[in-house]
Amino acid sequence: MPTNYYKLNLASLPDDLYNKETDVKEWLALTTTSKGSFPPDSLNRVLRLDAAVELERIIGISLYMIGNVLPFALPLFVLAAIFTSTGLVLLKAFLLYVGILASLQKFIFAPMFMKRYKRKQLSKTDIKDNQYLHTERNNQKYNSLQFIWPESVNRPALDDTPVIFTSIPHGAAPLGITCYPVWSKLFNDKLCHWTCAPVVLKLPIISFFMKHMGYIPAKAKHIVDTLTKKEENVGVVLDGIAGMFKSDKDTEIASIKQRKGIIKIALRAGVPIVPTYGFGHTSLWKIVADPFGILESLSVKLDISLTPFFGRWGWFLGPPQRVPLCVVLGEPIRCPQIEEPTQDDIDKYHSQLLKSYADLFENHKASYGWANKKLVFV
Asked: pLDDT of 289-304, one tens digit each?
């Protein structure tokens, strides 16, 4: 019997329903369903976009991208400025660029959208409310974001348990996961904490926003404590930085064949893993890797991207292409609680995770317009 799937179009969700106080039943009332996969090419449509939203994301995402490299790039520019006149010119240009982006965001777009979405300043204690930040709301509209999930994760299936959501592929930046309220509202009422490289939570400015939206370091202890002591959800981009480099127009390559640590964590905590796939993640930016793989190796080793990538109009570290994003959830992996799982236990449930990903991709790729594309695990 075909699986029943649900679809929620976040991009067209009414703004007055996008808040913590809205009952999840009002979101679920807007879903559409399908017996089996949705029709071919039905999940890859780019919706019309308000000009102010588009401009805010062009500026906001570019600022976010440059903010990730600022602590590393600025000392190099300063050093170059000390010794060469060209370096001084580059430093001034870099500071001017960052200053323009930051000023537009702070003095024009932030006030505009905080008023439009009836938002307040970030709370020191209410992380769930912070997850409705206007920038992430505009991400959903910019990339026509939709969510698809099977009956097996539809409420009330996961109401009484914390969940690990594992997402692939990473791409240059996995914008599909930034609809943070979905993970904390749609499948159960438990706050979801996404993980990131510990170094990211030490970056100036960027870390402030990420911490206020619930991010935790991608370390086993932090994940286990969140699942077992706080009894809250966790989200993990499973392929990490390695997921930036491999895919091409014919093949999506997922670097998760050896990513078994999350299985061990799930078994120790006794919580289900729900695999999620971000259709469109690998099309947002063009990543330029050196032919010798040096930057790729360094990026993976340091767990931070060192390779250049280009967005819309060839803009270096600029806004992504306006491709539609469709985040699809697969069948959950129900992990029993095992205090000390053996390697056989870990391999068994990891195989189930890979199968769930493979089935998910095959079931929905034609609906996204990727009928001839393949998913390969490495």
From this structure: 777 777 667 766 666 6
User: From the centroid of its chain, how far is CA 229?
Assistant: 25
Dihedral over alpha carbons 343, 348, 353, 355 (to 10 degrees): 140
Q: What pairing do the DSSP bridges indicate for beta strands 32-35 and 4-9?
A: antiparallel
Q: CA 255, CA 250: separation in Å to the nearest integer? A: 16
Could you tell me which residues are beta bridge partners of residue 196?
217
Q: Read off the pLDDT of residues 171-203 as tens digits, 9 standing for 90 and up.
A: 889 999 999 999 999 999 999 999 998 988 988
Measured from the Cβ of residue 252, the count of other Cβ atoms closer than 10 Å reads: 22
CA–CA separation, 285 vs 313, rounded Å?
10
The whole-angstrom separation of Cα 113 and Cα 50 is: 12
> What does each C-alpha distance from 330 to 4, 104, 163, 167, 341 come to in angstroms?
12, 40, 13, 10, 24
Number of H helices, E strands in the chain: 12, 13
Dig out the tokens for 201 from the structure. 């939570």
Taking the C-alpha atoms of residue 58 and residue 195, their distance in angstroms, rounded to an integer, is 25
Distance CA 298, CA 319 (A): 24
Peptide bond into 156 cis (omega under 30): yes
Instruction: Give 370's DSSP letter.
Output: -
Partners of residue 166 on adjacent β-strands: 236, 275
The whole-model pTM stands at 0.94
Angle between helices 220-228 and 261-269 (to 10 degrees): 30
Per DSSP, the residues of 123-159 read PSS-HHHHTT-HHHHHHHHHTT-EEEEEGGGSTTTTT
3-state secondary structure of 165: strand
Q: pLDDT tens digits, residue range 26-47? A: 999 999 999 999 999 999 999 9
Structure tokens at 292: 């010798």
Tell me the C-alpha distance between 372 and 355, whole Å: 19
Q: What's the length of the chain? A: 378
Task: Give the pairing type, strands 146-150 and 251-254.
Answer: unpaired
Three-class secondary structure of residue 235 per DSSP: strand
Say if CB 46 and CB 144 are below 8 A apart.
Answer: yes
